[in-house]
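Objective 1.3, modelling of assemblies. Example input:
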Amino acid sequence: MRSYRQYCGLARALDVIGDRWTLLIVRELLIRGSARYSELQDGLPGIPTNLLADRMRHLQRSGLVERGRTPPAFRLTPRGQALESVVASIGRWASPLMGETHPKDAVRDHWFVLPMRLYLRDDKPAAGTAVMQIELPDQPVVLRTNGDGSVGAQPGRAANPDATLTGTPDAVMGVLSGRLTLRQAQARALRFDGDVSVLERLAGRA
Amino acid sequence: MRSYRQYCGLARALDVIGDRWTLLIVRELLIRGSARYSELQDGLPGIPTNLLADRMRHLQRSGLVERGRTPPAFRLTPRGQALESVVASIGRWASPLMGETHPKDAVRDHWFVLPMRLYLRDDKPAAGTAVMQIELPDQPVVLRTNGDGSVGAQPGRAANPDATLTGTPDAVMGVLSGRLTLRQAQARALRFDGDVSVLERLAGRA
DNA sequence: CCGGATCCGGGTTGATACTG
DNA sequence: CAGTATCAACCCGGATCCGG
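Predicted structure (tokens):
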């Protein structure tokens, strides 16, 4: 992208992250922590491979991304990680746009990790760490209380979760957000196993 | 812009605000409250007139902007106003990028209104409203304590300010941010008139 | 002067094919 | 697996033109 050449923070930021696809690549790395080229392609349906290569070069030159060897995976630098608050802010603004699901839109289960981080809260931060396993059709996700009232979410599987939630993204997000009761969601093929108090601790008001 | 066609908040937001120039237009309206077409052009050096017209149509169709008659000025809808937190978040991320001033970059005095809103804090919210007039070379700005610890900033002139700060953007921002002492800034042709306690109340730690 | 519309060259993007 | 190469379509930038 051409620079705006304006002495203005917003304009200078957009010189770095304003290119098409760039912030979506940051999203993928925020969710996954580390990702290989082919994983990025899978998480960015529609991106032309030449653009992905261009953007990764640009993000490295800009100091937002670094690449590891063995395995050859990309990950965010601290400067890139700092974009989490920007992505969260945009995500919050976007929530009214998520009401209707357009049938031609692509979906990836791991995309729901960011809304989980953004909207879930831990009601009992002093009660010790709680771990919930989420089993979406194509992607397991681990929720873990951070002890400060926030809830961590990342792709993967935990060893001994206190509870497990299995179902479609819609049913799982419905229960976690409080839009659906557990009973309503179970009517939509959602399954819950384990300690119900952990679910009550995390889900509800949102 | 083409839609990403992804069921993801970030992607849907970028479908609306991800086009080149769009967020900078929002910046102009956040600063000015209301602006005519030619004022937008002045605040967006380098924008082609056809793109500005395109973007304004798009912003209106998307419900972020509405236009008044008599005078024919644009202003943000509540939905557009809600982008202030997004712009603030990006601005905060961008602050490390503002260290060096590139000689070819355009500058407009009113652009400094957003960093003022973002970084200034009122040390004595209970002490009643304080008003400071800022006289930048090309643009007067009014600072006003909001009573909740935040400080409002907008282009314009106040009737009876408690204090007046006159100088270049660099000197004014230096004093307000605490990067320069009043004495150091006065050596850079900054002038201060009025109640010094008001300056101390707003400036300092940032 | 204000508020655009029109036109055109060049750069960016999107889609696909190909390669070490 | 991790890209490069190619090319058409589209978007952007710069200039000019136009109606009130």
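The mean pLDDT of chain A is 96.
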